[in-house]
Structures are given as C-alpha cells and as structure tokens.
Amino acid sequence: MTALPLHRVCFLLQVRPERLEEYKTRHQAVWPDMLAALSSAGWHNYSLFLRPDGLLVGYLETPDFAAARAGMAATEVNARWQADMAPFFVALEGRPDEGFLQLEEVFHLD
Q1: Which DSSP symbol is given to 53?
Q2: Where is the signal peptide (predicted)?
C-alpha cells in the first residue's frame, strides 16, 4: 500500500506580547481530547514556533489540508479551544484556525 503524499503547511499569527508567557504555558498542557482530534483529523508533525515579539509560526504535514481543517472544524473540542485561544491574538477576524496567513512553499530539501 502506498502512503499518501504529505503536504507541508506553514502559517503565521501574531500573539499579543503581553500574553506570551500564558500562551506558552497553555501549550505545555494542550487538552488530551484536542491532541486526539488533531491527529484524527490528519494534522501530523504539527509544531508551533514563537518569536519574542509574538510572531507565531505554525507548521504541519497532512495528506489533505482542506480535509484536515474541515475535520477539526467539525469537532466540539476545537470550537472550545479556538474560543479559549482567540483572545491571545492580535488583529484576528474569526477563530485563530480560520484567521492565520498561510505561506507559500517556495523551496524544500528532502
């Protein structure tokens, strides 16, 4: 059986500078049901990187990003998590998982 090719996805958000420490603390204890939902929906090798000024860079791999986003949007735990996380972000319209800036991949070294 051949594995589906993975798409690499990178995105940006801006965390409020005054909430950086709390944001990091929250991500040291992500809810177990949220972690399970992400895995089930196809979010693999998912990482978040935070710059001292609050620039947040997210990275994940998935066979189908539209399906992975839809899978998460259909879960109750994601709705709770997004509502809980929304106040951490600057200039956000809607939920954090809907308001990030997805970056175009221009190079990859295997």
Answers
A1: T
A2: none
Active-site choice (7, 27, 44, 108): 27
Q: How many domains does the chain have?
A: 1
Give Cα 89 distance to the centre of its chain: 13
Q: What is the pLDDT of residues 50-86, one digit of tens each?
A: 999 999 999 999 999 999 999 999 999 999 999 999 9
Which residues touch 9 (CB under 8 Å, ≥6 apart)?
58, 59, 60, 61, 62, 65, 102
The CATH number of whichever domain residue 32 belongs to comes to 3.30.70.100
Query: Residues, the chain, total?
Result: 110
What gap in Å lies between CA 82 and CA 95, rounded to an integer?
Answer: 6
Active site residue 27: yes
